[in-house]
Amino acid sequence: IGWSYYSCDPEWGSLQASHLVLELENELRAFDVRFVTLKGVVEIVPRKLNKGLLVKKVLRENDLIHDEGTDFILCCGDDISDEKMFTSVFSYIAEMGDEQNAKPIPPVVGSDPSIQDIPMSTPHIRDPMYCYTVAVGKKPSHASSWVNDAQAVAELLVILSKGEQETLASQSWGHTSPSSLFE
């Protein structure tokens, strides 16, 4: 659950966010949650949950459902909480074909019977398989590439969809253009 205060006055939003966190900590102390305050957002997140666990769960579920395996992964993120997501993508790829040595992930949420750990399958390893992790904003990251901003992500998605694009305004891929990322 998140509360965004991007569009309000920064000082007022920050003050309200700090009061909100104090109130929520008091009201939710019986629950195993943590509060994350980053870039104009207050998030309430279960302590045992992170984006990396969810990404690995989705990739493993895809392997169980689709016999042909995964052939393309694009993972984009713009803050510190996305780093676990990037490393989970690489971990998933490293485990492909080596299920005997793979480390099973813990259940995503405690004892909820509707959310279960996904066992390792024996996925068909696609050849070629393309995997891209992209940090939004140039900063130290586990991602393999970076773009300047959300507009560059939109440009990338247009290129991937083989749609038309009038201009490539952002040239910040650690490559000459968004399209060269896939060469």
Descriptive report:
There is one protein chain. This protein has 183 residues and is of the alpha/beta class. Helix content is 31%, strand content 17%. It is built from 4 helices and 6 strands. The chain has a 3-stranded antiparallel β-sheet with strand order 1-3-2, covered by helices on one side. Helix 2 (51-65) packs parallel to helix 3. The two termini are 38 Å apart.
* Spatial gap, N to C terminus: 38 Å
Which blocks of ≥5 consecutive residues have pLDDT under 50?
106-111, 167-173
Report the average pLDDT across residues: 78
Number of DSSP strands?
Answer: 6
Which class best fits the helix and strand makeup?
alpha/beta
Sequence of strands across the biggest β-sheet? 1-3-2
Helical content, roughly? 25-40%
Strand content: 15-25%
Count helical runs: 4
The description of the largest β-sheet is: 3 strands, antiparallel
Q: Give the SSE order as H and E letters.
A: EHEEHEHEEH
Radius of gyration: 19 Å
Shape: globular
